[in-house]
């Protein structure tokens, strides 16, 4: 069944309020993820040395070309001239980098056969270029709002919130499902077919293995991802509902609902509740009466009831 709603667990912080007010999502670098193996595949060599050299050359050329185009956009040069310069520079740098890599194998302290040293160097450099190529920002969601582990791990131990988003936007958001289990390795033949031969099936396999594959123990998260540039961006999803954790303070609930009630009448609010006979979590619509006393004004007893010493004087 296609997914209709995804959920993001958040602690309560100024950043949370800011993202809700501005309807933005943060795309994080995988370098900051709690799983150091996430988006960190390894290579399996199943190609010839000649093909590996062609692959490394093309990876460096494509990266350098894109970087050069980006750096020259501010210059007052026509597009054709920018393309000509970028192509020439990219080819030159790719040739130099490949030559430097191949020259390294002749260092006298390598005792293995030269062919083995060459393959090791090519594998390392190709793996490094693949990680640079997929240096993307990722925004993570779950398909569940009532997962006890997610509330504890990402919802500030139930003191935070869970934000529900749907996909009713134009264009339809490119939400991708995480793949759990399998191997971390990517065969070099797949990369060659994807990047040198333009095979779309190989390209999809490569994208999935780099950006979407995680270890099987993480499957409890039932994760979906948006892929984009690192940083804060306008949400491509539609904010639909907010759930408040079991320990979420009433003052936090008041703050969040006050922020959104006035200008976002299309958002629904729910309170997470627990099952007395099991460990399941449930939800109910937020009771407005619980918020009726917020914001309160602090007053002393004298301010409320008057000064009793005045009555004693009479």
From the structure above, extract its key features.
314 residues; alpha/beta; 2 domains; three-stranded antiparallel β-sheet; 41% helix
Spatial ordering of strands, largest sheet:
1-5-12-13-14
Structural class: alpha/beta
Most strands sheet: 5 strands, mixed
The helix/strand order is EHEEHHHEHEEEEHHEEEEHEEHH
Mean pLDDT: 89
- β-strand percent reads 15-25%
Query: Kindly, what is the distance between the CA atoms of the first and last residues, rounded to a whole number of angstroms?
Result: 79 Å
List unreliable stretches of 5+ residues.
none
Proportion of helical residues: 40-55%
Number of helices: 10
Described by the principal axes of the CA atoms, the overall outline is elongated
Number of strands: 14
- Number of self-contained structural domains: 2
Structural Rg:
28 Å
């Amino acid at each position: 069944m296609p997914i209709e709603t995804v959920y993001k667990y958040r602690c309560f912080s100024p950043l949370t309020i800011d993202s809700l007010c501005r309807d933005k999502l943060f795309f994080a670098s995988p370098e900051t993820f709690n799983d150091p193996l996430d988006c960190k595949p390894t290579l399996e060599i199943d190609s010839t040395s000649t093909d590996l050299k062609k692959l490394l050359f093309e990876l460096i050329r494509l990266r350098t070309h894109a970087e050069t185009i980006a750096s020259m956009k501010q210059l007052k040069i026509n597009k054709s001239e920018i393309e000509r310069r970028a192509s020439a520079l990219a080819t030159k740098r790719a040739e130099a980098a490949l030559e430097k890599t191949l020259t390294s194998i002749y260092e006298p302290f390598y005792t293995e056969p030269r062919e083995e040293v060459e393959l090791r160097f090519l594998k390392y450099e190709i793996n490094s270029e693949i990680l640079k190529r997929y240096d993307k920002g990722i925004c993570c969601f779950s398909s569940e709002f009532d997962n006890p582990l997610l509330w504890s791990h990402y919802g500030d131990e139930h003191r935070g919130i869970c934000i529900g988003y749907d996909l009713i936007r134009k264009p339809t958001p490119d939400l991708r499902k995480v793949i759990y289990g399998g191997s971390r390795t990517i065969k070099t033949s797949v990369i060659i077919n994807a990047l040198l031969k333009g095979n779309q099936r190989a390209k999809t396999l490569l994208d999935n293995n780099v950006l979407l594959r995680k270890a099987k123990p993480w499957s409890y998260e039932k994760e979906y991802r948006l892929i984009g540039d690192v940083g804060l961006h306008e949400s491509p999803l539609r904010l639909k509902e907010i759930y408040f954790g079991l320990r979420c303070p009433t003052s936090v609930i008041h703050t969040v609902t006050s922020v959104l009630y006035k200008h976002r009448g299309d958002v629904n609010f729910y309170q997470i509740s627990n099952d007395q006979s099991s460990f399941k979590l449930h939800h109910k619509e937020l009771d407005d009466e619980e918020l009726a006393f917020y914001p309160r004004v602090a007053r002393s007893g004298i301010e409320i009831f008057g000064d009793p010493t005045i009555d004693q004087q009479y």
